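seq/struct pair 1
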Amino acid sequence: MEQLRESCEKAASYPLNLVHPNAYRHTLNYYHSRLDSREKDLFRDQESSSVDILDLNFPEATFDNTTIKDVSTLKKHLWRDLEVDNLSIEEEKLPIRCRFVFMTAPNSHEKLDISREMMAYVFSYMQISPRFLDFVMSFGRTECVRSFPCSGFWQKNTIDDEVQALAIPELGRSGNEIMFCYILRGVESSKADPGLPWSIRPMAVHHTFDGETSNSQWVVVNASQIMKSSIESIMKSQKTPLVTDFKTVEETIHSYLTFHQLVSEWSAEGWQWYIDYLDDQLQSLTRHALAVPVEKPSATDVLTGEFSFSDLQKAQALGEKVHEAIFVLKSNDAVLSELKASFIIFIDEYSSKLQHSISVSQKNLRTQISRAECLFCLASDRKKLLYSILQYKNGKQSVPSPKRPRARLTP
């Protein structure tokens, strides 16, 4: 407990303050300097910050949803099983069995709603791996949208390791932990850009599961409220077994795996409609090019004013959107493969069903990859056709009209 207290007191230096960071000092210094450089673009000021926390109250199996807007209230909430003033044990209480921390943003190119001080304290209290910062920094304001955003999966299992994680019995932490963190991207409808009704949005997840106490800590970073709303709906529904499936370690594991299933399904949804939209836009822009006559144009042919250089630019932009979709779809597929492989340690009927569910999501992703690759080839061909038409048009306009021979004057 003393080590955690000291770590939280030095939260401003996160991740340098972690008790067992599983990283070299120079790596921690790098992450800390990256936070310094991204602070203004990634986090809000303390006066306008907020974070949502969803807690399971055990053994009642009820959930509390709390929105916290300052560091002082955050500290009281996190240490609520202990006495707030001096953090000493006041009465015998069972620790929180499951806790979700939601860090959201209006969109993936805007600041997170949380302040750096609040995030650093949450991550210190939960002893979040610095590796997760790679995914968190995918959010926030940037000078330009990254063409190839960060993607990946990281796992750490201390159950069989000689060096275990920080053990804090008072908080239900035995030191035997399994940690996952990964980032996936989904496509959602959006009203932010009137010219583009779809938006590709990232979701970063960090999950720590205690193998002895079955306690679980989640951090979900998302550019919308969709996952928070989905989890709240499931947890608060009296018709779902997830509300009561925290009595045994096995039941708890099953419930936690279901949350990963939610995220994997989200990453595979919406892509069919997004690719349909890009296909429709490409056809609307370029299909008339197929009807351009190859014979000598007349004064009334569509060649005279149907296409312009801006059409070529629009075709290029559509091709880039399709290429981005292919990259994201393949990245999601790779992350889901690693996530599915990590569930092999849970050898039972339920984990097998979950692996099957992830395989279904991957099948959907791969179908959309094939569609997007075909659309990318079509976009490239149509762009070449537009370019050829423009070249031909410009060439005809630049050819001078033949001069008529002057009549000879006879003497």
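seq/struct pair 2
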Amino acid sequence: MPFRIGLHPVGILGGLFLMIVFGWSVGVNNLLAVFLQSPVSEKGYGFTPNQNAEFTFAAWAGCITGQLYGLAFNDKLPLWICRKSGGIWKPEFRLHALWIPSFVGLNIGLGLFGAALQYHLHYMVAAVGNFLLNFSSNVAVPVLVNYEVECFTKYPVEAATIMNFYRTIFGIAIPFFIDGWEASVGVGWVFGMMAFVSMVAFGLIIVLMFAGHKIRHYFHSSIMSTEEGTRIIGQEVNRLDVEAH
């Protein structure tokens, strides 16, 4: 069942974006010691293991900020959009919480991190980039998992499982090819290309935001069920349509 969900167009679009966004974060954090502890003569920062460990507080701060952002906006923003749309719920409303972290924060973070390594800027520039990278990836995961679960309400565990599979596979693969990638284009362009790929990948989310409803109806499957059509805001609150047709 998880693979049926993952191969549905809604699962593919959301899963591919999550794979890319979270993959960059995992890949960067896996290789952080290489970037930071390399000698200054090799364009590293010459950090000691303790300094490297202290640098990871930037990632922790990004994760915590991501959780606070989610607490503030992951429900309130979709409900606000729902209110502006007549009080009738659509799962796609949840995806609008990704504009700031995934379209803006992620790409700025990748750019700052790459520029810091390329031009050997102060390590705090790299720390801010790492902060934004972890902030954006930690916001994207719950938003997309919730969206997929709301598209397949009969199989919430299976939907979450396949999304976790998507978000893991790219991060595991990055260490196998990033050295050759860096040797070909340079470390700055590695992260610049990551940012460009992320911007293009956000187009998948835009497709779901504005056409997800049509995609779900066009590729209707027996495994799909949503709460679309439920009036959740207004004087008369009733369920208009639980199943996606």
